[in-house]
Every structure is written in C-alpha cells, then in structure tokens.
C-alpha cells in the first residue's frame, strides 16, 4: 500500500507549503496549522490570533489545545471530510484530514474565529470541555481583551473555506502520489534495464482528476472572503444588515431600494445614513468595494476577466473593465500581469 511508507512530511513539501499556508491565512483570515497523525505540529502556526497565542503559551491551557487538535483530526478521519467544531474556549476550528489508502497521515487545522451569528453553533460539537471552572475564570481576565479581537465570520463562509482546504489537500496528495509513482517506476526500470511508458507513469484519469480539482478550487476561491473582507461594523447598528448582505452576496448587484428595505428604512433616509456612515454614496462605496474584491481574485486565481466580472455582479465585462480602470487607472488584465510579473 502506498500510504504505508508516506508520512505527511513526504506528501507536503513543507517549505513550499508553509509559504502557501501563510498566504491562505492572510486571505481567509483563519489561522492555519498542519499536524501529523499524532497531532504534532509539522509547520509553524500561520496567522495565529493573539488570543490563541496567549492560550497556547500558558502551560496550564496548552494541553487542552493539543487534545482539541488531536481529537479534531480523528473526528475528521471518521467522517472522511472536514470537521467543524468548537474548541475548549468555544471558538470555531476546522480539521481537514489528509488520508492515503484509507490511512490517516495528518491534518490541516484552521480556525480561531467567532461566528457572526452565535445561534449557528447550536449543531456544532464542543470537542473538549474542562471541569476546572476556577482555572478558566482566573485565566479569563488576561484573555478577554484578546478574545474580542478574534475575527468574526458567518457559518456559510467557514463552510466554503473548509471545502477549499479539502480540495487543496486532495490536489496535493494526488500530485505527490503521481511523483512518488514516477520515482518508483523509474527506479524499477533502472534496475531491470527497461523504460516505463508515459501512460504507465501518468495515467490519463489521474491527470483529469488533478485538473478537475484545480478548477473546483478556483471556483471556490472566487466565493471566499477576500483580503479586504474585514467586515464593516457600523457605528449605526440600523445599517448592519446592509453591510452583512453586501459581504455575503458578492455576486449580486444589489439596488439601493433592496438595501433600504433590509434596514426597514426609506431609500432617501437610507442614503443619508449610509453617506454619513461611510463618507461615500451607496453606489460609489459598493463599486469601490467590488474593485477591491476583484483585485484579490486577479492576484490569487487564474479566473478569466469575464468570469470575475460575473462573480462580482457586473452586468457585462466591458462595464467591469471601465469601472476597474476608473479606480485603479489600469485595466484588470494589466493589473494581473503587473502583479504576477
């Protein structure tokens, strides 16, 4: 069995993976850590939040974190899919299993966020709790300010990110297996004096699977929260439903009247409150926001310009290009070429 001699360090090129892991943490706002099958970290903690840093540096609390990491990975293995749960401090974590030939070799752990709607956690398991309430009460005074700084996400956003991470892990595993198969076949061929056929080394179905996974990952990334997604929190709480809707329905072009209705305001009063809150008109603010999202997609995906236009709710690519140039003084294609050069 292939999995018998492959550990996670052999599947993941850890030096390259850590750079990608850092980028993923920056884009998604989740902290990410990769562990082996025992729950031991094999990478540094990318994007670790100050709250979790403080908890993990506390020798009384660290064992609880390690138990959560280990148990989360095992639960993910049982279901053979990403496992979303609550840690011992009741914040969201995700375990994405890395499995080869039905053998669990490790996991990508992500999370350290709070839910924007706490009622959404009703069906999630708190994977570990402590009976030492006195200990937690004593620690809380030093931790509560850090807790308030944790990122806030909707459950829908967390699901999308967990799916993306799962596809990414599958892609890496398949590619690594093909490389190891290639090495094994050439080693055998060298010993026997024959040359393996390309069709034996890279069977067509495997390449098709890799391409399919790549396309699926690109599609999911288009729907993920972008680097500019530090969600607006309003001084005027009446407007919060409008901002929440904007950030969770990026593919829509939402008319002002619909936003006003969401906030139970007349369109004219909504416009005045919105301008006071943001310093911009509603149309100007949403256009600028969509261009920020577009820049992240141009930087992090190979999606065609027309597809990005559609993903962000523009009626047609020509209008998207015109709007992008208005804010950035260059076209989307030139921006992508310049960024990736």
From TrEMBL:
It comes from the Bacteria. This is PocR ligand-binding domain-containing protein.
């Amino acid at each position: 069995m292939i999995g018998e001699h492959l550990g996670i360090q052999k599947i993941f090129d850890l030096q390259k993976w850590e750079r990608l892991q850092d980028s993923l943490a920056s884009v998604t706002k989740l902290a990410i850590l990769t562990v082996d099958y025992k729950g031991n970290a094999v990478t540094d903690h990318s994007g670790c939040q100050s709250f979790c840093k403080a908890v993990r540096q506390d020798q009384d609390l660290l064992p609880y974190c390690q138990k959560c990491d280990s148990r989360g990975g095992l639960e993910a293995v049982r279901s053979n899919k990403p496992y979303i749960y609550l840690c011992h401090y009741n914040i969201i974590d995700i375990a994405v299993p890395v499995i080869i030939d039905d053998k669990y070799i490790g996991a990508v752990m992500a999370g350290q966020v709070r839910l924007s709607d706490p009622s959404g956690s009703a069906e999630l398991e708190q994977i570990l709790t402590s009976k030492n309430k006195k200990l937690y009460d004593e620690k809380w005074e030093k931790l509560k300010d850090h807790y308030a700084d944790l990122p806030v996400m909707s459950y829908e956003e967390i699901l999308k990110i967990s799916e993306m991470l799962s596809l990414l892990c599958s892609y890496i595993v398949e590619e690594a297996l093909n490389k190891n198969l290639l090495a094994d076949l050439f080693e055998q061929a060298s010993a026997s004096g024959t040359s393996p056929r390309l069709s034996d080394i890279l069977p067509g179905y495997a390449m098709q699977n890799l391409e399919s996974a790549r396309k699926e990952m690109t599609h999911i990334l288009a729907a993920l929260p972008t680097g500019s997604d530090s969600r607006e929190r309003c001084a005027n709480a009446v407007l919060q439903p409008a901002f929440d809707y904007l950030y969770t329905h990026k593919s829509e072009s939402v008319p002002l009247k619909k936003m006003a209705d969401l906030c139970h305001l007349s369109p004219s009063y909504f416009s005045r409150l919105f301008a006071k809150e943001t310093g911009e008109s509603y149309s100007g603010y949403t256009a600028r926001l969509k261009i920020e999202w577009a820049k992240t997609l141009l930087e992090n995906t190979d999606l065609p310009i027309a597809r990005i236009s559609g993903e962000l709710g523009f009626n047609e690519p020509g209008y998207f290009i015109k709007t992008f140039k208005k804010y950035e003084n260059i076209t989307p294609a030139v921006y992508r070429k310049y960024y990736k050069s």
